Amino acid sequence: MKFFKYFLLILLAVLLGGLMYVTMQPSDYDVARSKIINQPISKVFNTVNNLKTWEDWGPWHDEDSTIVVSYGDKTVGVGASDSWTSKDGPGAMKTIAVTKDSAIQQEMTFGDNEPSEVLWDFEKVEEGTKVTWTMRDDKAPFIFKFFSAMSGGWDNMLGPMLVKGLDNLDEVIQKIPAAYTLSEVTTVETNDKLFIGYPFEMKIDPNELQKVFEKAMVKTDAYVKKSGLAIGEYIPAALYHKWDEKTGETKFHIGLVVNKEVSLDEGMEKVNVTGGKYAKISKCGNYGEGDYEAHTAVGNYLLANNCTTKYPLYELYVNDPMVKNPDDIQTDIYYLAE
């Protein structure tokens, strides 16, 4: 009996010691892992930004076959959400902030616990895209602290999972067909062009630029209908006068290249673009997909031919995206090559 009594006392002491050890573990963590994926940043970003792809690469799906995922009304961008059940309990995810091709902020909740932060950062690098996945919390529940203690700390507990997820993500993205195609860069002779459009000068912010383009194109379309321009007399276009990555500033017009004199809409300006020798590339795919890669290809071509980037440069949106498959939407990009 004495032995049994001592055994119980020792067991109790061990349990109390273990409880104190877990209690003393930090309630906050900030664990991150990075990986360079040899794919365009838009492709990597769009994959992570779509919650429906997570079943294909999420590391927890490899370990728990009981996970059943349900999706909210929205699965891409701000407001996207999903939830799941599993043998370890329910959970939920929600995207709360997005900066296109740059960052995603999410909240992940397990059971009735307070949500933790999930952060994604995307950076263009020479090899493709550097993606960083971070999990962060400042008030982790006791059960999570227990598993952290058993794993030797938060980094040992979460780090391998993040690495596995990034490896899975890389493998999945490599199998996704390209969302756009690029032609070879060639040098062409162009005629003088008459450009009419709405002027803009702003900071380089992908989200804000997208909003500006969408609003300006709607306004331009309304002008076309009001002015009576016929098909063949105009091409939607953007004319760039400045794009400075160092200062983060850009200056451009959005409007039309026209082949006849027309009256201007309120706020429109007329710009004569001199013809000559231009480097040209054609991109086929949705607007916003592959734009960086297309402009980079032209820039590399100019360098190889001992030319420097000169302004203005312009993009022609040569077919109607409303009546084309996304793969067929064509953008022609022209840089001075003199």
Task: Describe this protein's structure.
This protein folds into two domains: 25-175, Alpha-D-Glucose-1,6-Bisphosphate, Chain A, domain 4, CATH 3.30.530.20; 181-336, Multidrug-efflux Transporter 1 Regulator Bmrr, Chain A (Alpha-Beta Barrel). The radius of gyration is 27 Å and the shape is elongated. It is built from eight helices and 16 strands. It is of the alpha+beta class. It starts with a helix and ends with a strand.
- Could you report the average pLDDT, rounded to the nearest whole number? 85
Q: Let me know the number of strands.
A: 16
Q: What fold name goes in the CATH topology slot of the largest domain?
A: Multidrug-efflux Transporter 1 Regulator Bmrr, Chain A
Parts with pLDDT < 50 across at least 5 consecutive residues: 3-24
Rounded radius of gyration (Å):
27 Å
Portion of residues in helices? 25-40%
Overall tally of domains: 2
Question: Main traits of this protein?
Answer:
Alpha-D-Glucose-1,6-Bisphosphate, Chain A, domain 4; 16 strands; 338 residues; 9-stranded antiparallel sheet; alpha+beta; 2 domains; Multidrug-efflux Transporter 1 Regulator Bmrr, Chain A; elongated; 7-stranded antiparallel sheet
